[in-house]
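Why does residue order matter? Because the sequence determines the fold. Keep that principle in mind as you read this record.
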Amino acid sequence: MRWWWIALPVAILVLVPVGILAIPILTHTDHGLSVQEPTEQWPLEVTAEGDDGRTRELMVVSSTPGGVVDTSALTEGDRLVVSGTGYDPAQGIYVAICVIPASPDVKPGPCLGGVPSGEASSSPGATDFAPSNWINDDWAWKLFGARGYDDVETGTFTAYLEVPNPVGEGIDCFESECAIYTRNDHTALRDRVQDVYIPVAFDSAG
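Structure:
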């Protein structure tokens, strides 16, 4: 029976982390819709009054090269600094360019660049540009490469997007309306309350 005393600690070491990650996903309660306010055609900043009582703001802060952001004429390789505040820091989000769904109760997507790979860990203030960013303040998900919120109290984050090819697997932003989106990560995929977006288009000559 000596094997049992070896197997038990190993099982605990495996099951405890799995439980820590899985329980919040299994017990998550959806909080409704984001209820985004109408905006001008090519805004750099939008606001949404969520069904959860939070007011979320999403903005494109800057762009490189050039520094001037034109959301109506993005080109592949543009680097956008995107900031948000008012988000629920207890819940992770993805930030990416996605197809705008026909209804606000439908998950945005597909998205350029897919789901963040989580291959490299980022910290607040880091400038790791990527086609999509993953923000999650849970220490366990940070081990998988999530970037933490800049300010947990205010739900403020910074994301660094490198604009990918506007045509990808199952997505063509020349043919479909696309936007820079925030949406809940895989821990709450059906919850639409953090779906906030800034419409974008691409320069056909770029």
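Residues 32-200 form a domain with the Immunoglobulin-like fold (CATH 2.60.40).
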